[in-house]
Specification:
The complex is a heterodimer of chains A (338) and B (370). By secondary structure, chain A is of the alpha+beta class. Chain A contains ten helices and 15 strands. In chain A, α1 (12-21) packs across α2. Classes of the chains: A alpha+beta (338), B alpha+beta (370). Chain A binds chain B through residues 98-103, 105, 107, 109, 111, 180-181, 184-188, 196, 200-201, 203-204, 207-215, 217-219, and chain B through 94, 96-98, 100-101, 103, 105, 107, 179, 182-186, 199, 201-202, 205-208, 210-213, 215-217.
């Protein structure tokens, strides 16, 4: 069975493989250095345990495990507060109308404004999965289990949730938006900047990013085309998030101009549709495939299983799934149809 | 004789002919009789003090007294940016540095600015093709500094000139194509003409207000920022010799540089000195003319110091002595001065190293005619 659970220190190697294995960057928020990643896992563990210092905000990291082989096949995260105490950078695409009454000219001028407006909003991040699992229920489980966790621990998260989607990158690894803008100021490759953005404090962005708004018309045509466009490889993630109710707004990634999806946390499909139920057994594997989560803190588990629901609101789930979740009859679970 | 005097109504036809042959490069003087007549009236008001000193546009005519015709003009705008808004880009540097990463990047940046507001501008220099060379352009240009020197309180402490930027023979400007066109939706010549006519409100409405980072512009556009058009190179050289320097401002359309100087530091003004007029006898003059004596002598500008009827012409350096200048009757008449009047002199051309300075030459050469 498929299981999503909090990442542990023993998952380090597996996560490192996943982070490095998706080619140049599939996730900007997963460091590829062992010590940095170990730190992130340790912080996640503390976040689940509720033992982080009071002035820090929790960052959760989940892994997708195949219980048959005990192999970790995916990883996903939630930052309760984007920026994590530091500014969270985006470009906001806005428009000015330059009009001259006298000349009869009216021209829409698009401008990218540096913005920190999304700082402190809850951020879904670090989604990385074995490419072989694309379009499977495991893919959906890994992504949506985070929303079940949020539903069960709603007080930890903000009213709005955002997700950054990777932007356009060519086969040879070139990022047109970066080449037209960021490169001039950061004096480094996209790859280097992207890794720094996780590994170092974000101070370097404040130091190197051009402080003034950017006129879109002065970008190269390739960079203009890339604004707000998601990378081909992210289509499945993108579509899934859209079904959840996430929409692309006016915010873009500062490095690759990928879209930032936004939603009202309480309107997300999984959060609206999920509900608590008491766990009960059934010998039959009939029923609707559902996401079932349970357990508190580090005990949080989520799996996908068939389920039938009784009129009294009990969830009848095959016992096999109980074991996966580490729960017993009568325990409360949160369920949502797949 | 070539004589500088205020531009007059009857110079209109000559001015129109010059504007026509100048083509599109000179946007402040379009070949349009109505507009030119308006300019002349404006200048007349300035010399007759019928307008506020700040609003004055002084236009000087270079008259060939034999042809009795205006063969060139030049101007001073007492203050720019008073009723319209005067725009430039300031070329400055943005430095982004990260100690943590060991990165230190300098980004040249254009900031839209109105910094030249309330400053005096020299402008509108135009010389008929038939009279090019022989220092006529210098006279047209430098007479303005003599005027400013006499009437300093009418002008700002600094004086500047906008130099024409780079464009090709079809009037295409690389900076305009990379920047202005993207916001203005018109050709460079059209925008330039509109702005030259004083229709500047469209600039405020359409111009990008945020700084422009130069690395985002193509190389051809970056290369012309602060550079002058080939035809303007001699004018730039002349102003540099007067002590004008690039002040970091460039034209918002073609990227041509703004050069400026403090009025008191302008070479013509620093090197000027006052002399008392003496009138030369006709015979001495004829003798000298026959001998062709002052052909190769340095020329000295002589100016009458009148506001309403300002006049400047040139005389040979040998006419100047320690405290006097001896003028022929014709020249004295043309300047409207008589014996005993005080006139101000300045060399037409900058002193070449090693050459004798005017005035002193006579001292050592002994007595000559007086």
């Amino acid at each position: 069975m498929w299981l999503v659970r909090p990442a542990e220190s023993g998952d380090l190697k597996a996560i490192l493989d996943l982070a490095g294995g998706t080619g140049p960057r599939l996730s900007s928020t997963l460091p590829r250095k062992e010590d940095a990643l170990a730190e992130k896992i340790a912080f996640s563990k503390q976040s689940f345990e509720g033992t982080i210092p009071s002035d820090e905000s929790p960052r959760f990291l989940f892994v997708l495990e195949d219980t048959a082989s005990n192999l970790v096949r995916g990883v996903a995260g939630i930052d309760a507060r984007a920026g994590h105490g530091q500014p969270f950078y985006n470009y906001r695409k806005d428009a000015l109308v330059h009009a001259s009454h006298e000349m009869g000219v009216s021209r829409r001028v698009e401008v990218l404004y540096p913005s920190h407006a999304l700082t402190d909003q809850t951020l879904l991040c670090a989604f990385t999965i074995d490419p072989a699992l694309k379009n499977t229920e495991a893919f959906e489980l890994l992504s949506r289990s985070r929303l079940l966790f949020m539903a069960s621990n709603r007080h930890l998260f903000t009213d709005r949730t955002v997700v950054e989607i990777q932007g356009v990158q060519t086969e040879s690894g070139e990022v047109p938006f970066w080449d037209s803008l960021g490169r001039h100021f950061f004096n480094m490759d996209f790859e280097a900047a992207d890794q720094h953005s996780w590994a170092l404090s974000k101070t370097f962005i404040a130091e190197l990013m051009p402080p003034n708004p950017i006129y879109v018309t002065l970008l190269t045509p390739e960079a203009q085309d890339a604004l707000g466009k998601a990378h081909e490889k992210t289509r499945a993630t993108h579509e899934l998030l859209q079904r959840e109710g996430f929409c692309a707004g006016n915010y873009l990634d500062i490095f690759d101009a990928g879209p930032v999806l936004e939603a009202r946390t309480d309107s997300l499909k999984t959060i609206v549709a999920s509900h608590a139920a008491a766990l009960h057994g059934t010998p039959s594997e009939d029923g609707e495939p559902c996401l079932i989560s349970g357990g508190e803190h580090v005990e949080f588990r989520c799996t996908v299983s068939s389920m039938t629901e009784t009129l009294t609101g009990d969830a009848k789930v095959p016992v096999k799934a109980w074991h996966t979740l580490g729960l017993d009859a009568g325990d409360t679970v949160r369920v949502v149809p797949l | 004789m070539l004589l500088i005097r205020p531009l007059q109504e009857n110079d209109l036809e000559a001015l129109y002919a010059m504007a026509q042959s100048a083509g599109k490069g000179l946007t402040t003087l379009p070949a349009d009789r109505g507009l030119l007549a308006k300019k002349i009236r404006h200048a007349r008001d300035a010399f007759d003090q019928r307008c506020a000193p700040e609003a004055a546009l002084y236009l000087f005519a270079l008259e060939d007294t034999e042809l009795k015709q205006c063969v060139g003009i030049s101007g001073i705008q007492a203050r720019v940016g008073l009723d319209e808004v005067f725009y430039n880009y300031r070329l400055s540097v943005t430095v982004n540095a990260s100690r943590e990463l060991g990165v230190h990047v300098r980004t040249p940046t254009l900031h839209l600015s109105n910094d030249m507001t309330d400053t005096s501008e020299i402008c509108s220099l135009l010389l008929s093709d038939s009279h090019r060379g022989g220092g006529n352009g210098l006279l047209l240009s430098r007479c303005r500094f003599m005027f400013m020197d006499h009437f300093r309180k009418h002008f700002s402490e600094k004086v500047f000139a906008e130099m024409r930027g780079v464009s090709d023979k079809d009037g295409r400007s690389p900076l305009w194509d990379a920047l202005g066109r993207k916001f203005f939706d018109m050709e460079f010549t059209q925008a330039d003409t509109l702005s030259g006519l004083g229709n500047k409100s469209f600039i405020a409405e359409l111009m990008p207000k945020f700084p422009i980072y130069l690395p985002m512009l193509p190389d051809e556009a970056r290369a012309v920022i602060g550079r002058v058009h080939d035809n303007t190179a001699p004018a730039l050289k002349m102003l540099q010799a007067e002590g004008f320097n690039f002040n970091g401002m460039v034209d918002i359309f073609d990227g041509g540089p703004v050069v400026e100087a403090f009025v008191h530091n302008v070479r013509t003004i620093r090197d000027s000195m006052d002399r008392i007029v003496m009138i030369r006898s006709k015979t001495a003059e004829q003798k000298q003319a026959l001998a062709g004596e002052h052909e190769s002598e340095p020329e000295i500008m002589v100016c009458n110091g009148s506001f309403q009827d300002f006049r400047v012409t040139t005389v040979p350096a040998s006419w100047v002595s320690l405290d006097t200048v001896s003028l022929s009757e014709t020249i004295a008449d043309a300047l409207g001065v008589s014996a005993g009047d005080r006139v101000r002199l300045a060399p037409l051309k900058e002193a070449v190293a090693g050459a004798t300075k005017y005035g002193r030459k006579n001292k050592h050469a002994g007595i000559r005619g007086h």
